[in-house]
Structures are given as structure tokens and as C-alpha cells.
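User: My advisor, Dr. K., asked me to get a structural model of this assembly before our group meeting. I'm new to this, so sorry if the format is off. These are the inputs:
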Amino acid sequence: MVKMESFFFMAALLSTGLSVLFYLWQVAALRWHRAVLVAGAASDAASTVPAAGYRPWGSGRFAAMMAVNGLLFLSLSIIGRGVATGHGPFSNMYEFSVALAWGVIAATLYFQWHYRTAAVSAVAMPVALAFLVYAYTLPSRPLPLVPALQQSLLLTLHVAVAMIAYGVFAIGFGSAVLYLAQRRGSIPWLPSPAVLDDMGYRSVIIGFPFMTLVLLLGALWADVAWGRYWSWDPKETSTLVTWLLYGGYVHARVLRGWRGSRSAVLLILGFAAVVFTYMGNYFFSGLHAYK
Amino acid sequence: MEGKTLTTEGAKTAAARRSAGLARQWARPIRRLFRSAWRVCGSVRVTVVLILVLIGLSLVGTLLIQVPGEVAADRAEYAWWLQNVVRPKLGLFTTPLAFLGFFDVFHSLWFLGAGALLMASIMVCSINRWKALRSALDGSRVKLADGFYEGGSSRAQFSDLAMSAHEAEGVTRGVLARRRYRVRREGGADGFWIAADKNRHFRLGTYLHHGSIVLFVLGFLVGSYFGFRSQSFMVPEGSVREVGYGSGLSLELESFVDEYWPEGPPKDFRSQVILYENGAEVKRGVLRVNHPMSYNGVRFYQSFFGQAAVLEVRDSSGKLLFNDGVALGWLSGQEPYKRPTGMFSVPVTGLTAYVVGPAKGYSDPMVQPGQVLMEVYSGSSKPVAVGALQQGVPKKMAGLEFTFVRERQFSGFQVSRDPGNALIWTASSLFVLGVGMVFYFPHQQIWVRGWTEPGKGTRLRVRTASGRQVATAREFETLVEDLDRELARAVKKV
Ligand code: HEM
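Assistant: The format is fine. Below is the predicted structure of the whole assembly, which you can bring to the meeting.
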């Protein structure tokens, strides 16, 4: 089983890598294509005609197919591992990184399908790839669960909702980055600023309730395992800060009418907080000393 | 108003009149103060600043070393901790940071103050929003100026429809009703007006989740003021210990088992326990991590474990003074010789004895395996007797006879009673419910104006509320598609 699982993982890593290459290739092709069209326009008005019918991203099909492949292989890898170990992907950084990558790819495909643009995918997929490459460098051997982690149902749910929330927030990050590049609408081969802004907002509308569940399920687990739903432990605190940032985004938008660049910056900060929380174990270990 | 209530009491003495004057004099500034406090609390900008302050403080609490609860409770211990744990790391920064309360951020005045203000602000905001929400629930005005129908974050227009305004209204109302809109209309010689909406009651979700934040804080406060929490309740195997805190409970540990996976990490810790209330057995069972035991609101959690020593003390006549397990639950000494240490008082004699076991993982020059070191104190900080005890070999110390009977284990529990717990979980459920309502069932509002233009046919203008919302745009798109199709079908029929 473990062998199968590592085969699936490698296949997923490869597919995701190829998908990223295709997306980047697409970006390069579009840039070049537009450059030619615009240059041609100066001398010959007729050459702008194809631009109208030209569907940017319409041919990003290979990249998306590879992303679907990656998602399938990752699903198999996670399921295979779950069957072998009898619990969800929460026992070490390897498992959690794989779960995060799954969330990012799933969210990428959902948004690409929904908005019919692959532009944001070209930013989000490298994030997924980064998680997978990181997982690749980690020891993947499943470790037996220490007593506190023997609470399979709650922890599996906790990680499942985190997968969705963080995956969707990666899309928010991707749209925010592109928004900042595109805020004057000066890049013809990218979606309009309004669409990018909309994608960012939608990512929070979908992700925030899940993020809330991440916090609450974590607190519930802590209560069952330790008799204490909240103890201001660094990981808890940084999850709370992440949640507050996205909460701030919603309020700024609904109450103050924040749009565009300012809310894009919040989305980038929010995702930075997600990554910080996820890597938290490394930053915090030295400070836990007194216990 | 204030003046009137005072004079009607019929107080005519000079003193009463003076106080009435004073009250009148103060009423206005107090009212003004209250009004500006209300304005400050209700300001979104202030709220954002408060939340940013809380985030900043939380980051400080995350990145900076924080004092453990037991240490913070004792001034002397806190000072010792600052000097020995913090100063070696932070040096000169220690004093100013300690002055700011940054080593116990989550109980500092800053944190509590900002938290309290945030609560006030949530309540004020909610009250302020009530009027707007009420009118949204009642529904907006139906008949609005023509210019209104050219606004909105999304809008559509149908012109030159070959049907009467009345027929167009019928089609529109049919489409809206099928999409479960509440439709309110007005009509007249110059056409019709429609204001339609759906999911309006889900807007009350904001009250659920904002109210639940207040409930969270209430639960937290109730828990910390009316409950108790002991992080390190230690019971040696074969011993009984009182829980304290006025609970009348005591716990006996019959046995403790720690099991390991073949790979090394721990697999299971379990304590076989008996619970007594005022001396009578009320419960017995196995306590494991993730499987707490609960009695009358007091919950016991398996938390840690360690070495214990069973000791016997007799006086010079051979009378048994003490025979019990002692948990060696703390570490003492300098690195690398951190030795498990416990303490007990010897009944009758007024003496206190410290029991020190050998350091783990090193061959300890001071305490050999199979031994414990005894230090006996009588009030002062200098021991009156010190000596190593070999297991099973009695030893005379301080006029008494000490015996290290055998080694056992102790189990450490967290014991707590948290009457705020129910509030916390109620708040959690309400929060999720409220956020779900607002996020996934957004309030949709549609306005339609239709009229017949002489010689041209009927024209419709349709718009949404302003303030672009993702869900609104999408809903509107499909609504307009429906409307388009139905209007076309109706035109054909005509
Ligand atoms: C800290 C946790 C908080 C969370 C998670 C939260 C969540 C939300 C959400 C999701 C909305 C969107 C409602 C909508 O779309 O209509 C909202 C709206 C709102 N929030 Fe908060 N909120 C929090 C704190 C606060 C505070 C402290 C205030 C007080 C100033 C506040 C005032 C408001 C107001 C006035 C609205 C608009 C309500 C309406 O449109 O009817 N919120 N909040």
C-alpha cells in the first residue's frame, strides 16, 4: 500500500509540475502574441482583427488537464494512505502538505471552470506545486499516532475543512496578485480588474465559513483532548489572526466599500498568514521552551 | 426631563434644590459624553483599529515567550522567572517589556481593554444597524423616481416589447414568483413598479454571529471567574488525593500504564481510577487521553505521568507517621542533571521533606539508580538533614526513620470545572449558523419599472441594489435570462 501511495504521489507531483509548465508557457505565449498584434496594429489596422475573435486562455486545456490528473493522483494517494493508516492526513507535515496541495488544485479547477479564465490558475498552481515539492523533501513514512491525535473523526474533519479554506484562499491570493498587476486594466491578456476583484471576494465568501469551522473544530478537539478549548498556543493564535484578517476583509468590503487594490493587499496578507500558520511549527518550536 | 423628575418629588429644601441644579448642570456633559462614546464605539474605523490592536497583541503573545499560568499567579515566582528564564535571552529589553505586561499579554490591561471595547463596539454597531435592517425586512418603497431605475450594481433593459405594460407585469411577476421572490407592486396609468426581494430573513444572521461573539466573551469570563482549573493534579499509584477547590472530590489511582508503539512514540496512557465524593465512592473507570471522565461538571483529563516513590516515616518510638506515595512531579537541578523531585510534609513533626530521584538519561553522580535523595527542612532554607536512601533500607535522619519502600508511577491530570463551556459551544453554533446564513443566502433585491411608450411598445427597466456583490450579479444574470425567455414567449403568443 505504501508503495502504491508513493507512486501516486510521484505521479501527482509530475502532473502538477507539467501543469505549471503549461500554464507558464501559456502566459509567455499570450504576452508574445499580444505584443505581435499590438506592434502590427501600428502599421496595419487589419492585423488587429484576429484580436477580437482571439480567446485568450481558451487553449489552456493541456494545463488544466494536467491539473485534473494531479488532483486525481493526489486523491488516490490520500485515500490509499488513509486506508493504510486508518486516519485522515493529519499526523505529520508531509500528510498535511499533500492535503493542502489537494485543496489548492481543487480550488484552482473550480474557479477556472466557474470564471472561464486560467489566469489565476497560473499563479495558484505554482503554490500547489510548492506544497508538493516541500512534501517531497519531508519524510513520508506514516508515524503511529500519539494518544492526543487518536481522535480520528474530529481531526479528519478539522483537516478537511482546512484543506478547502486554505485552497480557496490560495485563489484569493492569486487573484489579488494579478489584480495589483492589472489594476489599470493595461494588460490585455489578463481578465479585467473587475473580474479579478470578484474572484478574490468570492474566494473569501466561500473560504471564510470553512475557516471558521477550522477554528471551532480545533477548539472542540482541544476541549476533548486537554479539557481546554483555547490556550493561546502560538498555532491557535496565528490561526485566529488569519481568521481575523479575512474577517477584516469582509467588513472593509461590506461596510466601507473597499474594493480593488486595498482589498487585494488584505488578501495577500491573509494568505501570508495562512502560510505562516502552516509553517508555524518551525518558527515557534524554540519559544515553547519553558514547559 | 431630569429637572422635572427631581422637582416633582416635592423637595423644597435648599440642599435638594442645589443638588437638582447640580444634576441639571451635569446632565448635559454626561449626555454629551455618552453620545460621543456611542459614536466612537459605533465607528467602523475605531473597530478596525481595535481589531488591529488585538491582532498586534496576539502576535506579541505568539512570538514572545509567555509566562505559564501557575507562575503568573505568584509575584515572587514571576520575578524569579523573569530573572532566570527571560533575562538571559532578552537582556535589557526584559524590564520595559515586563512593564508593558507583554510576558502575559492575554491577561494584560491592553488586551482586556481592547477586547471590552470591541464588545461594546459590536453591540453599538448592531443597535445602530437595526433601523436599516428593519426597513430592509419591511421592504423598500415600491414606487421610486425614474432615475433610480438607471442605477444599481447590475441592471437590464427590455424595450419595444409588443405587449401592454399590464401583460409585461404579469410575465415579470411570474418569473419572480417562480424564483421565490417576495413581490410588492404598485400600478397606475403610467405603468407599474415592482420591488421584489428574497432571503431577507437571512440578514438576521448578522445578529446571530455578532451576538455570539459577545456570548463567547461571556462564556470565557464565566469560565475563568466561576470555574477552576488545576493543570497539575498528581496522584501516585495506590494513593488518594483531594481535588480541592471546594469540590469535595478525591481521586484514587489504582494503576497507571504507559504503552509505546514498536517505533518508539507513545501509544496509550491510561489510569485506572476511583472517584470519591465526601469519602464515598461515586465513580470508577479508566481515564485516557481524549477520554476524559466527568462528574457533576468536574472533568478529569489524563495529562502527564512520571516517577513516584513510596515512602515510610516512623518516629523514634517506631510509630508510623507517614506511608504514602510521593509524586516526583517537577524537575530540579542544573542541566544536564534535571532530577525528578517531589515534596511532602511529615505529619506531627512540622518537617518538610524533598524527595529527589536520579536524573534521566545520564549516570548521575549524586543519585544512583534505585536510590532517592532526601532533604529534610524545618522552616528555614537550610536543610536539617540530607541523605541518600537505598530502596528497602531504613535510615535515621532528623531524629526520624525514613524508608524508601519502592518505586511506582504517578499520573498527572488536568482537573477543571468550566461553567462557561455550554455558553462557548452555544456561541460557536450560533456563529456558524449566522455566518452561513449571511454568506450563503445573501439578501437579493430587485426593482422593476415598466411603462408603455406611445407608438413603440412596452419598456422595462430592471435593477439590483447598489454595492456590487458576487452573488447578486450571478443571480441577476440568470434572472434576466429567464425574463428574456418568458417575455419572448409572451410576445409570440400575443
Ligand atoms: C470579530 C469578529 C467579527 C466577524 C467574524 C464578523 C462577521 C461579519 C460578517 C461576515 C458580516 C457580513 C454581513 C453581510 O454581508 O451583511 C458582518 C457585517 C457587519 N459587521 Fe461584523 N463581524 C465581526 C465583528 C464585528 C464588529 C466588532 C462590529 C462592530 C463594529 C461589526 C459590525 C458589523 C456590521 C455593522 C455589519 C453589517 C451588518 C449588515 O449589513 O446588516 N462586526 N460581520
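One thing worth pointing out at the meeting: Chain A has ten helices and no strands.

User: Perfect, thanks a lot.
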